[in-house]
Amino acid sequence: MDESFSNFKSFEGEDNLDLKQEVFKFLRYWPWFIAALIITLISAYVYLRFAPRIYQTSAKMKILDESDGLELPTSAFVFKRVNINLENEIEILKSYLILEQVAKELKLNTRFYEEGTIQTAQIAELPFDYEQIIHPDSISTALSYSIIVKDKSFEITNLVTDKSFEILGHGSVASEHNLPFKLKLNDGSALNKIIGKKFIVKYGLLKSAALGLKSKIKVEPIGEQSDLLEMTIKGESKALSELILNKLMDVFNKDGIKDRRSVSQRTMEFIDERFESLAFQLDSIEVSYSDFKQKNNVIDIETDAELGLQQRSRSEEEVFKIEQQLALEELLHEALKANAESELLPTNIGIESGNINSLINEYNLAILDRDKLVSSAGVNNPTVQIAQSKLNDLRSNITRSLNSYHQQLIVSQKQLQGRKQKFVGEVAQIPQKEKLMKAIAREQKVKQSLYLLLLTKREEAAINNAITEPSIKVVDYAISGSGPISPKSNIVYAGALLGGLLIPFGILYLIFMLDTKLHSKEDITKMTSKIPVIGEIPDVKKKGNIIFDDPNARTALAESFRILSSNVDYILPVTDDEKGKVIYCTSTIKGEGKTYISLNLSLALSSINKRVLLIGADLRNPQIHSHIDQDKHKPGLSNYLHEPSYNWRESLISGFEKHPNHHIILSGSIPPNPAQLLTNG
Hints:
This protein has 681 residues and is of the alpha+beta class. 52% of the residues lie in helices and 12% in strands. The protein has 19 helices and 14 strands. The chain has helices at residues 2-15, 19-27, 30-50, 86-93, 96-106, 191-194, 206-216, 238-296, 306-338, 354-377, 382-426, 432-466, 489-514, 521-527, 556-571, 594-606, 625-628, 637-642, 674-678, and strands spanning 55-63, 110-115, 120-123, 129-132, 143-149, 153-158, 163-168, 181-184, 198-203, 218-221, 228-235, 472-480, 612-615, 662-665. The strands form four sheets. The chain has a six-stranded antiparallel beta sheet, with no helix packed on it. A four-stranded antiparallel beta sheet has the order 10-11-1-12. A two-stranded antiparallel ribbon has the order 4-8. β6 (153-158) and β7 form a beta hairpin. α5 (96-106) crosses α7. The chain is elongated, with a radius of gyration of 54 Å.
């Protein structure tokens, strides 16, 4: 019971952590931490010195309502959009078509670099005149050229074929070459700044440049309820990043204006097509009217008499309006039949049905939305299919509304014609030829009014096309931060400091964790308290002072062995006989200090006037002889064990003059069977 309790106490003590001792255990290796900090800080400085500087550029813009600018302020036809779908606008802004146009206009598949001593940095443009001959679309393979500015020429090297040649006079405009660009240095004062420098021009595919922009540009709305968009891009060249964002806003704005103008342009095209047929019809009516007057000798039309003529006139005006609406309905019906699914319908041509005008407006908006989705998502996208289905439904609704409106006009026309016949009967005295002339004049008036109406609408569409407002409002043009976002010196130095502390700490922690050796008394007492520790011997580095040869020495080594000898003498059992006390010093592994301890302990006991005999019992690899300058094979213990008649006193050695009570018996000749000799009794 007592033994198990003591074991429990020993293991319980093992879990107790002495924080102070652990800290001092690491602090003993403070040079490691200082060296690691110096190395990491120097590495951080070198990294910050030569790492490329990455800057962030941002721009802000507001998406305007697409209904702005499509019609005159007094027009009855105005698009109304309740909300702007910023997600759709973001997808259009980052679509391949828009980014390809940006890359094409800025020639982003052509990149410029300045080669330094250690790193090569991208620049927005070369420090001399550069004219690209090859079109961005015609670049099908990657090309690279290096340009070295010399005192009197440009040295150009094709990095693909390694062919080099010089252009004298710093100008390739007048020289014959097969280069895809022209160079010229107009400012001679700038030569001193760039002489000896090396510039690299790289050509890539336009598609790769557009896809690269798609991955680099980030577009996000500013707030949940805002219609503002913020665009950001990261790059080494601030000037190039600002050019890209400004050009992106410009291309997106032009694309929106183009969509807005498409409705007005389609309206003008539709009216222009109808002008030809109306002009021919008006000419025919005028010729018929002139022939009728000549044939019937009619010079002037007499005014109708009394109230009947006035009523007839009002009835004819109502019939005229109905016929005008029928003509417009027929024109719009013909346009709907002749139109393809991707073409816009003419708007606001005079139809007095608000339902039909609203459906046509909604139909045109649906076409524009579908075309945008097709350009960004593809024809087979489910969203495009839904938009196409909506477009087909609107087309069917317009057809049904036109048919219904046509039936209403026919019914109204019949009613008005009945009333007109009543009034005609009341004015039957008017000559038949006068009625015919009125009919011709009425038909002429209908065609003429229709012609003037279409002409007015064409002018409105032309004005709307000319005064189309932009689709965006630029809130902030592209601007770059004053400092780079990467690398950040404070974070790099903080990481270097942390790494300089953690790396040696981690290494030492692994060393301590994997270390299975005993280094101090505390290492034993932590494990168990049952093993008595009778002494601690310092690790003496100087090999010349490892022997306690002076009994009066006051060194740390001498004092430690004096303490050890006293403790050993104390724990040795007390006997009444006069036999000598035996101290056995051994270990299981070579090199653990058996010879060192036994030799110095024997000298320490001898220094307090005790007669001591040191016997070297290591019959395989004896070491005592090396400390007293004796022959390794001098007769000793092995000889006595092998020959009982051997006088062991002949093997006694007094190896130390200051220790007269100290004698040594060496191991003797190394036998082939040491284990049998030691167990022979």
